Amino acid sequence: MSARCWPKCTPATSGSARSDRSWAPTPVRACWAWRTRFQRLRPICWEPVSIRDDLDDARLTRAAQAGDRRALEQLLRLHHDQIHAICRRLAGNDADGQDATQEALIAIVRGLPHFHGKAKFSTWAYRVATNAALDELRRRSRRPVPTVIDASDRFAGTATADDSTAVVARLDFDAALAQLPEEFRAPVVLRDVAGCDYAEIGSILRIPAGTVRSRIARGRARLAAAMRANGGNHHDAAERRNDEASNHE
């Protein structure tokens, strides 16, 4: 991945923000530092995600736009796991997921001066992450796919029996998710991995909330069918997740 140039621009000031502080290039280097900091495998779970404090996001966003590097790093840190989860699940493997995550973080840092707060920061950031992951998928479809050992495959070689079962379940799920068309995969990941509500998913994907509901329902059904067709031993668990999700929606 090649180095990027930082666009020179000066953010709008607010309150006590220093007007003489231009948008410095240092946050880009801070963003790149995340590449080595988050190389380890991050397990993806289906537990409900915590509700983020939107007011705190807004405060950090204003400070970051005013040139506060610590605020920028904290903002990226708060949202990194969700951004990585979206990119990892949409991309389908750890290597492409990491690449998409880095592209998303860089795009977020570069685009922050132009973020006007019309939507929540998380909605905007997850849209950037979704686009980065889908772009990575499209690039991958146009190039030869190298033989890459996924981190979960490496882990499976030394895992205990219980761990191996979890790894196999994850691989079964990833394989089934990879078979979903883009129009179904993105809403399912945003709902069931990132925990976004229907209105937020509609804003991220720029489709009506009713369409979001329909695509999620159809995507979950296809996901369960794909797991059955793949002969996975964990399709019953997937269907239970679908049923539980439907009962809470």
Strand-helix topology:
Blueprint: H1 26-37, H2 54-65, H3 69-91, H4 94-111, H5 121-141, H6 151-156, H7 161-178, H8 182-192, H9 198-205, H10 209-229, H11 235-247
List the defining traits of the structure above.
single chain, 249 residues, mainly alpha, Rna Polymerase Sigma Factor, Chain: A, Arc Repressor Mutant, subunit A, 2 domains, disordered N terminus
Question: How would you sum up this structure, described in words?
Answer:
- This protein is an all-alpha fold.
- The protein folds into 2 domains: 26-141, RNA polymerase sigma factor, region 2, helix turn helix motif (Rna Polymerase Sigma Factor, Chain: A), CATH 1.10.1740; 151-247, Orthogonal Bundle (Arc Repressor Mutant, subunit A).
- The protein is built from 11 helices and no strands.
- The chain has helices at residues 26-37, 54-65, 69-91, 94-111, 121-141, 151-156, 161-178, 182-192, 198-205, 209-229, 235-247.
- Helix 1 (26-37) runs antiparallel to helix 4 (94-111).
- The longest helix is centred in the N-terminal third of the chain and has 23 residues, at 69-91.
- The protein is globular.
- The N and C termini lie far apart (41 Å).
- Mean pLDDT is 74; it is low at 1-52 and 144-157.
Summarize this structure briefly:
This protein has 249 residues and is an all-alpha fold.
